[in-house]
GNAT family N-acetyltransferase
Amino acid sequence: MEFHDLRDLSKKQLYQCALLLNKELPIGWNKVEDAQNEISEQLEADGYFYALIDSGQLIGWGGILPCYSGNVYEIHPMVIDSKYQNKGFGGLLIKYLEDKARFLGGLTIYAASDDESDDRRSSLRDADGYDDIYDKMKHFDPKNHPARFYMKHGYQLIGIMPDANGRGKHDLILSKKL
């Protein structure tokens, strides 16, 4: 199993990355072309993007983007093929991204995770994002939302962007000290 810089991948492998993004995160990238555009845009940015490949098979991929003069890094995006989820691969990828951010001088790493899917919702989904939000965050339950994965790896819910994806569909902000 190896990590590969996306900039070193073939066009075919980058297409596989786009297919995976579209398959696993269709709300954000509901067409393969959208996923391809996302990859192209990110590769032109100042970020760092890596694919986890085992015996020629793409397991997943993710990236980090510098913010706040490099003191903070945003994980964007991060995706693991569903057939490899809950087998430790996501943990390997997130640790690799964290180690890279730390090596680059990052002090904090964060992820913004949309709470808009009907089948992967947290306790904040459909809640009023302005009514006693601190109490709601204090009693936050990720349920089967991807926030559960981040929290398992030491991330804390530090805020939300209310209604980012429509009424009651917030963007959850999770961060971790490096």
Remarks:
- Residues 25 and 79 are 8 Å apart (CA to CA).
